[in-house]
Structure formats: structure tokens, C-alpha cells
Amino acid sequence: MDIVEKFKQYMLDNGITYEEAAKRIGWTRQNLWYKLNVGVSPTYGTIKKIADGLGFEIRLTQDGKPDITKLEDIAADTEDDSARFIIIEHVINSMGYSLEIVPPEK
């Protein structure tokens, strides 16, 4: 399941509407719906805002163990948040790291 699907499934499982989630993120309902449903690969900045708003944690791991390197440090090499999340994920994987998307505890 990709990251966008994880967000949508989490919202569905927890009865969180697009309106409520958008309010948490600071967007309009329409903007959030578009970001999650149009099928365009979201940017790192978009994923980070949604993750923060929904309480998800994006962890960087190496060999299954948490790594102290901050994902933001690696993503910052893109100079802005316009890099597509999937590209950042591929770069991270090529460096021997993995991304772990962790939903908030219930």
C-alpha cells in the first residue's frame, strides 16, 4: 500500500472526514481531496504536511533499525519541497535506507 493509500485508509478506519483532516493540516477539504485522489505523485512537502496533520511519523531506517539521520536532512538536499516523494523514496532506498510510515497510536 502506498503512502497516499495509507493516509486514506487511516482516515476511513478512524472516521476522519476530509473536512476534519483538512482542518488539521490547514488546507481546504477540496485541496486535500485533490492531493489524495488525483493520482499525481505528491511532493515531499505535501506528504510531510499530511503526515504531520494526521499524526503520522515518517521514520528513516537502515537494516530495519531506526537511523538517527533525519529524513528532512536528506530531503533538504532537493533545495525545496517540490521533489516528488517517490523520487526521494527511491534515492533513500538506493542509499540502503528505508522509509517507515507509522500511523499514530490509538
Features:
106 residues, alpha+beta
Short description, anyone?
This protein has 106 residues and is of the alpha+beta class.
Helix segment count? 6
For the sheet with most strands, the description reads:
3 strands, antiparallel
Alpha-beta classification:
alpha+beta
- What is the helical fraction, as a range of percent? 40-55%
Computed over alpha carbons, the radius of gyration is: 14 Å
SSE series:
HHHHEEHHE
Mean pLDDT: 84
Q: Tally of extended strands?
A: 3
Euclidean distance between termini CA atoms: 20 Å
Beta-strand content: 5-15%
What is the 3D form?
globular
Question: Can you walk me through this structure?
Answer:
- The protein is of the alpha+beta class.
- Helices cover 51% and strands 13% of the residues.
- The chain has six helices and three strands, in the order H-H-H-H-E-E-H-H-E.
- The chain has a three-stranded antiparallel β-sheet with strand order 2-1-3.
- Strand 1 (57-62) and strand 2 form a beta hairpin.
- Helix 2 crosses helix 3 and helix 2 packs across helix 4 (44-54).
Q: Secondary-structure map with pairings?
A:
Layout lengths: L2 H11 L4 H8 L3 H9 L6 H11 L2 E6 L2 E2 L4 H5 L9 H10 L2 E6 L4
Antiparallel strand pairs: 1-2, 1-3
